[in-house]
Request: fold
Amino acid sequence: MPSRTRVRRFRAGLSATALAAVALGALLPTAQAAGGSDADQRLQRQLDRLVAQDDGPPGAIAVLTREGRTRVYTAGVGNLATGRPPHLDDHMRIASIAKAFSGAVALRLVDRGLLSLDDTIGSRLPSQPAAWHAVTLRQLLQHTSGLPDFSGSPEFQRIIQADPRHVFDSRTLLDFVADEPLLFRPGTLYEYSNSDNIAVALMAEAVTGRRYEDLLRDLVYRPLDLHRTSLPAGHRLPRPFLHGYDVTPPDAPEDISEAISASGAWASGGIVSTPRELGAFIRGYGGPALLSAETRKEQLSFRPGDSSEPAGPGTNAAGLAIFQYTTRCGVLYGHTGNTPGYTQLAATTPDGTRSLTFSINTQTSKSIKPALLARLRTVQEDFACALLKDR
Reply:
């Protein structure tokens, strides 16, 4: 367990918290171990410098998959105690990329006619506050709902700070803000909120009569051949895992991999996956494999200037539980996330044939180590350009 001081520090970031062929590619050696081209070596040096920063992550792993061939770049370590480097099949907290999974569930239910993007909280979740009843599924998925963020509520914060491993009833997380009005009229503004994806998952459960975890399995994991991806309730991670750290110089990095319970994030940030499977997911969800053309058109209706949290590479725009990243080399679709110990990016080309996942084992966001985030986004864009080369 981290010290109480560090619990307070890293808690501040939590609130900001054909298919089989597509899913798996042939694994090549790491770029560093294989020597690689001049371009490979430049990317490797970028990763090495990121890890070498005083407040940087102990380790990093970037995975480029192009037409079924995967190249893995690693720097530093995934476990300071053993010196083991990050690995393609290490489990890790994917933080807010879990929101893309809730989007996948909801949009697949739209394809099946069980949900509509115009369904409201009032029609599907009538027990939720009347002030929220006009909010639609579309607005929840695009963070234009105006729902207050449960993870910023004083009572939620008090519980987490007293016991970071507290196991919540995930289906009652919205109760923390049930007495609060909407922050703005739905559809008029963009504000990233963890409450949105809790409501999405509850709507999915309401129309199917099934647990969200089961819907994930049947609608996402199985179609994309994901076997190491899960939504736990407690604080334990499956083995082996990429260890996450609180890096606050001059203190030594502190392992906080299992310091918090996933139940307090649930559909907004609780999923655990691996770099390999995260790439398979984003190629399926961001590409054309998982959704109908009609639903995908709605998914990819982007609002310019609205960023993921943390911002991804290039210029950001918000779709339905997915973001558009317009880099100097081209466009990717994806999602980011940050939570104590981890910062994540998963992105794909629009055709779903290429993907980039980029994972570091410390947290950064616009409010936590903003200089590190700026450097991270620069490196991510260089990897994005490598992915997009020769298109």
In short: Residues 1-34 have pLDDT under 50 and may be disordered. The two ends are 47 Å apart (CA to CA). The chain has 13 helices and 13 strands. The first helix runs from residue 4 to 14.
